[in-house]
Amino acid sequence: MIKISGSLKALPLRRTAAACAICVFFTLAPAPALASGGLHGSSGLTISAPRAEAVNGLRLLSTASPASIPAEKDTNAATAKPRDRDYYEQRGEIVWEVPSAGKVIALTFDDGPDPVQTVQILDELKKYGAKATFFVVGKRAERFPALIKREAAEGHEIGNHTYSHPFLTNNRSTESIRSEIAATQKVIKSINGTAPVLFRPPGGYYHERLVHVSLSEGCLPILWSWHQDTEDWKAPGVNRIVNKVLNNAREGDIVLFHDHVQGSSNTVDAIRKILPELSKRGYHFVTVSELLKLRGSTSGVSKPSGSKTK
Question: What does the alpha-carbon distance between residue 37 and residue 48 come to, in Å, rounded to a whole number?
Answer without folding.
Answer: 34
